[in-house]
Design brief:
By secondary structure, the protein is an alpha+beta fold. It folds into 3 domains: about 140 residues, no CATH class; about 130 residues, Alpha-Beta Plaits, CATH 3.30.70.2510; about 110 residues, Alpha-Beta Plaits (2-Layer Sandwich). It has 12 helices and 16 strands. Strands 5, 8, 9, 10, 11, 12, 13, 14, 15 and 16 form a 10-stranded mixed beta sheet that branches. A 4-stranded mixed beta sheet has the order 2-1-3-4. A hairpin with a 7-residue loop joins β8 and β9. α2 packs across α3 and α2 crosses α6. It binds zinc ion (2 copies). One zinc ion binds next to α2.
């Protein structure tokens, strides 16, 4: 049976078809949008007096009646949003899918494509040519056309900005705290975010980015984190800021860097800001075996120290393999396991009879406060163990993170 004969048979037995549903039955044989093929075929049928004037037997004319309004709605919603690429998505009422499945099963049209795919291709074509944006499977904006609710909604993809932060003051956390008023649900006090921006790296950088990119929210992904009371010095710690639902996607990052740094002078600093992609988040979060960290700590020893003590610490801990059970202070949120980490180099400098400075180059993931205190024997060896005197960390700075 020829293609036209099959179409004539379907129309005769089933009834009228709109250009979209007819085009989807004709399908992929000719290289042209199914809608165009469907519309042309309807002209042919009309000429043969076989077109029929009833509502479409697949969609009941829902599609031709609502599609233009929905495209206009999409254009309105896209106004003011910056994007380079887009993609349409389609939700259809189940009755349409049932009816097209029945026709497919009964006649098996050789090139038939689903109504959904026909619509997606048509909407991609109309929107991209209308707006001048490219169609992409990883689009800046995904536009969903819900034909069952005659509703259009947008999902704007986040942007990702890589950088490094330095923390020059103690007492700053990496992430935002949960809002104490609503417990994270969102209230007036926290602008419905459920989080408190003040006092965190994430908040200090994120609020400025949120303004610049006209975004809804943000998340900081750090390459590890330092304790709240530790500074982060050197070149800084790598991070990726995920800027959520931004209306703007382009900005001068050098200017942004200056803005952040002048706003938070002496408190935090960012550098090396650049646009990146989602996979960078995974890469900086991986606890790669190659990541090493350099720490500086001020250590206090209850019974005082001698130069010999310090020699002993340097000799014993340089190139030592440290076995460390999860520190007691984080046990409430981490499983109790034994970590094995290497210390590569330890240097000490006496400050006074009971205080000294220590620098430690070690694998990422080693808890340095416990390397000093010994955590009641949970970290072995430790400064306390070597000295046979109680030692504890009074101040801690991360001087450098290597390997990113
Ligand atoms: Zn139809
Ligand atoms: Zn709140």
């Amino acid at each position: 049976m020829g293609d036209l004969d099959l179409i004539l048979l379907i129309v005769k037995e089933e009834g009228t078809l709109c250009p979209f549903c007819l085009g989807s039955i004709i399908g992929s044989k000719l290289v042209a949008p199914n809608y165009i093929k469907g519309a042309a075929m309807r002209e042919v049928l009309k000429a043969l007096n076989r077109g029929g004037e009833n509502p479409c037997v697949i969609c009941g004319n829902l599609i031709p009646k609502s599609i233009n309004t929905m495209v206009n709605e999409a254009m309105n919603k896209l106004r003011g949003i910056e994007f380079r690429s887009l993609k349409a998505a389609v939700i259809l009422p189940p009755t349409i899918i049932e009816r097209e499945d029945r026709i497919r099963a009964r006649y098996n049209p050789p090139y038939m494509e689903s109504v959904k795919l026909t619509l997606i291709k048509w909407l991609d074509l109309v929107l991209s040519s209308e707006i001048g944006a490219e169609v992409s499977n990883e689009p800046d904006v995904l536009i969903t056309f819900d034909f069952s609710k005659k509703n259009v909604f947008l999902k704007v993809s986040p942007i990702f900005i890589y950088g490094r932060y330095r923390k020059l003051k103690r007492g700053i956390s990496q992430s935002r705290r949960k809002c104490p008023y609503c417990g994270g649900k969102g209230c007036e006090k926290c602008n419905r975010t459920g989080k408190i921006a003040e006092g965190s790296i994430e908040g200090m950088i994120g609020e400025i980015m949120k303004d610049i990119f006209e975004a809804e929210d943000y998340t900081l992904h750090g390459a590890g984190r330092e304790d709240v009371d530790a500074r982060m010095l050197g070149r800084g710690r790598p991070f990726v800021m995920e800027v959520i639902s931004p209306r703007k996607r382009v900005a001068d990052l050098e200017l942004l860097e200056k803005k952040i740094n002048s706003m938070w002078r002496g408190i935090i600093e960012v550098r090396e800001l650049k646009f990146t992609k989602r996979d960078k988040v995974v890469r900086i979060k991986e606890s790669s075996p190659n990541i090493k960290k350099l720490y500086r700590a001020v250590v206090e020893v209850e019974d005082g120290i001698t130069e010999e003590d310090l020699d002993g610490i340097e000799k014993t801990l340089t190139n030592a393999i440290i076995k460390q059970r999860t520190p007691k202070r984080v046990l409430w949120r981490r499983a109790d396991i034994v970590r094995v980490r290497k210390v590569y180099e330890v240097k000490t400098r006496k400050i006074n009879n009971s205080t000294f400075e220590i620098t430690v180059l070690c694998d990422g993931g080693l808890y340095v406060k416990e390397l000093i205190s010994g955590d009641d024997g949970r970290t072995k060896p430790s400064v306390t163990e070597v000295l046979e005197k109680k030692a504890f960390c009074r101040e801690l700075d991360v001087l450098e993170v290597f390997g990113h």
